[in-house]
Amino acid sequence: MRIRVCGVAELSPGRAKRVLLDHRTPVAVFNVAGTFYVTDDDCTHGLSSLAKDGQVEGDEVECGWHGGRFNIISGEPTGSPCVIRLNTYAVEVIADDVFADVG
User: Fold this and answer.
1) Bridge-partner residues for 4, per DSSP?
2) Interatomic CA distance for residues 15 and 57, integer angstroms
3) Considering only CA atoms, which of 16, 12, 73, 9 is closest in space to residue 48?
4) What would the pLDDT profile of 32-60 be if each residue is shown by its tens digit?
């Protein structure tokens, strides 16, 4: 199922945004050098919001609670204490909107 997660203009490079799907499931939308990515928003180590509390550096996000890191593109953990990967979702930009395939 493809869902609109934001407008292209809403998210500048190096930034992230938390979006609730169906008003309950949080995902993080990232703009990495002009390319959009969508992952689960909750850190797999401590349920901190990566979009709200995290720090984006290149193609990685660092959790604001315990400093664990993830590769935004693959969802793989790149720094402890995180060991479980994030789910990632296919993204498509259509006109001025960013969509994620969350089905």
Assistant:
1) 99
2) 9
3) 16
4) 999 999 999 999 998 899 999 999 999 99
